[in-house]
Amino acid sequence: MIVDKNPGTYTSIKRDAQNRFAYMFFAPAVSVAGWSYCRPVIAVDATFLKSKYRGVLFIVVSKDANNQIFPLCFGVGDSENNEAYIWFFEEIRKATQVRRELVFLSDRNQSIANGIRKVFLEAHHGICLYHFEKDLKQRHAKATVFNLDSMFFRINSEGIEFIVDLKKITSDCLEFQLDELPCPHAIIAINKRYLQKSDYCSNWYSKETWLKTYEGHVNTVGDQVSWDIPQHVQSEIIKPPDVEILQGRRQKKRHIPATESVPFKSTKCSRCKQVGHNRTTCLSSPAPHPYSKKHTANYSNLQ
Fold first, then answer.
1. pLDDT of 207-259, one tens digit each?
2. pTM of the prediction?
3. Contact, 187 vs 179, CB < 8 A?
4. Alpha-carbon gap, residue 15 to 11, rounded angstroms
């Protein structure tokens, strides 16, 4: 089904045997067109929905020339299972062009891996390497350089050696040739030769490519009273999904997987304005709080 307000936008809805809502897919036309100017790398993830029908929101994003998140498509399903992801990936393949050397990144969800193997046989799939990359840059920020010829370098740091070939644009860490952007080891070699780093960056990172990514625009649909809905669409009724409403308080916060780091949040006391404790456990309090365990001993000594 094509949305006329934004020509080229691809949407799809799947219903079950009882004509109830099952899955939904949405890919804006400008996102599909702009993605052709992004690297063929997309990340897939999902998060739970807070409505009474629950379900999950599927999200697919890429990165533009400036390494900013570029949204590609969205979807809604009952949960992160094999059937939902296979249907979702099939819709992605219909909505977007099949690109060479396509790479998927995920959070080790097995259903995502199963869906990719089922629908995108030619694609590569791996987990996020953000933390590995961050550690790599920190460990090799300072390195000893051994130059064999004008464009061939051995970068040694903390007993680990990486070979950088500026002619072939390769590095043993593989980051240089995979990202098509100078890695920390290549930067050391490039600086040693007083060369321009931009000469070793792929066209994916150029200003011209970045501008073409966002040259399209999204037309707003306006107020609902101005919508021109075809008669065959108005007469089509889809029942809500048949889900069991669980008892108890509804979940408001997402579950943090074991593979995801949680940012540290320090507690600030509203009494003394210091971090590391709260008002109840504050030692600067003129009157110890009766329920504070830390003050129990001190309060007894005062008496």
1. 999 999 999 988 888 888 888 777 887 888 888 887 776 677 766 676 666 65
2. 0.70
3. no
4. 14
